[in-house]
Amino acid sequence: MSHPPLQPGWIDAPHRHAALGRFALESGESIDDLRVSYVVHGDPDDRSKPVILGLCAIGSTHHRLDFLIGAGRAFDPSRFTIVVVDALGNGLSSSPSNSATQPRSRFPRFTIGDMVSSQKRLLEHLRIDALHTVAGASMGGMQALQWGVQFAGFMSHIVALVPMAKTAPWAQAMNHAGRLALANANPEMARGGAATDWSAWIGVMHVFANRTPQRFASDAAQAGSVDAWLKQRTQWWSAQQYDPLDWTYQSWAYDAHDVGHTPGFGGDTARALASITARTMIGVPRLDLYNPVEDGEWAARQIPGSTLLRLPYDSGHMAASEADPAAAQFLNVEIGRFIGEA
User: Fold this and answer.
1) What value, to the nearest 5°, has the Cα angle with vertex 188 and ends 183 and 193?
2) Going along the chain, which residue ranges are E strands?
3) Positive or negative: CA dihedral 5, 11, 14, 17
4) What does the DSSP 8-state code read for residue 166?
5) What digits encode the pLDDT tens for the residues 176-189?
């Protein structure tokens, strides 16, 4: 896809691409010509500042953490160099929608571990051999925990917001419902080229998964009615130009996620988490109807010395975003304090 229209609060940093050659996947298949899209906040040639790696959520881009980036915010470019990477399958990095040699359903399935490996290859390309912080929300938080297991010792801090270390059956069911909504509304999805009907998917993923009843009641009231909100949200999302097959591929990676599958841990999720040596903060809201709060709490208990940050807000999964201004301000303060610790 082309870059979506710039939204309020997004930072218009130069977009960069790295062509990294053939890339072997955990499945044994390969991406013919790996391309990783990313942005850098700060001077990429200034090696005097510690580096933060930002990761994006399912169906999002390198703008996902923009609410944490900027002067006086947790990720201040005057103190850090911030590299934010587009995950495999988001339409900017290598994806079913943009592959010349493996288009659409010929694109191989990938995992969250593959996303992390592609990011590590990018850092090698950029000659970055250590990170201060790896940070992400939702699927980005899941990638952050995978980083801590897969490349222990490479970073000193991890910030994982609304994550899971192993995808819960509830989240898998939400993704399954989202895929069915897309497939039933768009029977030619695998071939591409037709306008996408997102309306049913919006109900599943943007209402039931991402909001709480309290938050949706507020949003619907501001729009004038439930129908008005759904129509406005569908129109807005359609304008983002996201490809439904890309989201489907990312959702398969989401469903299969388990840090215990990292080589050396034999499927033992708790033991994998216990191997994390970075100082780790996990943030969870009061209620999350996508990634259950209990899964984040459990992950925090397995990681030695981890910090569990409770977000006292009612926006649900969206509490880890700019969509809740109070939560965003709270996170900037708490994350800034956390990553400033030695």
Assistant:
1) 120
2) 16-24, 30-41, 51-55, 81-85, 131-137, 155-161, 279-285, 307-311
3) negative
4) B
5) 999 999 999 999 99
Question: CA–CA separation, 119 vs 309, rounded Å?
Answer: 26
CATH of the structural domain 16-168+257-339, one choice from 3.40.50.10190, 3.20.20.150, 3.40.50.1820, 3.40.630.10: 3.40.50.1820
Neighbours of 248 (CB within 10 A): 19
β-pairing verdict for 279-285 and 81-85: unpaired
* 195 — pLDDT class (breaks 50, 70, 90): confident
Angle at 289 between CA 92 and CA 239, to 5 degrees: 35
DSSP secondary structure of 200-227: HHIIIIIIIIT--HHHHHHHHHHHTSHH
Model confidence, pTM: 0.97
Instruction: Name residue, tokens 């591409």.
Output: 192
pLDDT in tens, 200-229: 999 999 999 999 999 999 999 999 999 999
Domain boundaries, the chain: 16-168+257-339, 172-247
Tokens of 227: 């129908």
Of the candidates 313, 317, 338, the residue with the CA atom closest to the CA atom of residue 325: 313
